[in-house]
Design goal:
Blueprint lengths: L1 E8 L2 E8 L8 E9 L5 E8 L7 E4 L26 H6 L3 H24 E4 L6 E5 L16 H10 L1 E5 L2 E6 L5 E5 L3 E5 L3 H12 L1
Antiparallel strand pairs: 1-2, 2-3, 3-4, 4-5, 6-7, 7-11, 8-9, 9-10, 10-11
Amino acid sequence: MTVDGTAQVAGRDAYQLLIKPKQSGSTIGSVRIAVDAENGVPLKFTLSAASGGKAVVDAGFTKVDFAKPAASTFAFTPPKGAKVTEADELETGKDERGAMQKALPGQLAELDGLAGEGGFNVIGEGWTSIAEIRSPGGKGLPEAGSGDIPAEAQGFLDALGDKVTGKFGSGTVFKTRLVNALLTDDGSVYVGAVTKDALVRAADAAAK
């Protein structure tokens, strides 16, 4: 992360923080965050693709006021007939939503257990992390000439992506400016903010 000059955002002086991936293979070119020079509050966020062109995400304030709001701003009177749930009731699970909150940690633990069964895996780390998802049926897109779908539909699917091959076999890469996905013929999916070549390398490594 580096400081890349200053800017005016929403009429405020701001420092521009610039973050760039050090790893090769990422489709992310840079992340630029403008923070208020006086209090450090983020005022603008810009995400640019490595391929260049218009920013993928460019969001920021056009007007901002850091004055303390009046207490009356947060006054709220529930409409007649509305059910009111107090915060302590949520914590103790006295109503349905509170019970759901109490059950959430256990449910998340169950999902974490499923991740270890081979259905989901993360390859790499940082900017070039790739999610590997293996479908239960082990079947990808219909192969050309298989007769599973009409020829016109097969041609449409082929036009949507790039055919690739490797140690993993063969598959199709579907691309956007930022996120790319490889769907192999055996039903595995590799997806991340990485290049097509990075997806193929990940699939090859997983096939060993």
